[in-house]
């Protein structure tokens, strides 16, 4: 995601710094992304060649991806000023009709977010939203 932003394309070492990983690990990940056809390298610049990668909800990788990205978000929040963090944890009870209404609004919200992101001309920041809706009891 960092490589969708021009500053990081021009200076890939910034990505390594943001991820706080060794140069060797960073280079191996870059090489993997190049082999997968997701990025290309010219001179000392990296460019994204495939903008959207989608893991289907049935993918064997999806659960691990969600855990890793959420854990990373929790670590990242420790270095972000509190005023720049918007958080919500909401545990509620309701009937099936209300749940279906909430679920529909949730899905519409996700569509609206996707439309806004797709309209964005030039990325200048990396953001994350974690938003789950599920039933706790059986």
Find the structural class using helix and strand composition: mainly alpha
Q: In DSSP terms, counting alpha (H) and pi (I) runs of 4 or more, how many helices?
A: 5
- Give the strand order, joined by hyphens, for the main sheet: 1-2
Helix content: 40-55%
Mean pLDDT: 88
In terms of DSSP E residues, the strand content is 5-15%
| Rg computed from alpha carbons, rounded to a whole number of angstroms | 18 Å
Poorly predicted residue ranges: none
Euclidean distance between termini CA atoms: 37 Å
> N-to-C SSE series?
HHHEEHH
How many strands? 2
Shape: elongated
Largest sheet, if any?
Answer: 2 strands, antiparallel
Oligomer: single chain
3D architecture notes:
With 138 residues, the chain is mainly α. The chain has 5 helices and 2 strands. The protein has helices at residues 6-10, 13-19, 23-35, 62-77, 96-119; strands at residues 39-42, 45-48. It has a two-stranded antiparallel sheet with strand order 1-2. The longest helix has 24 residues, at 96-119. It is elongated.
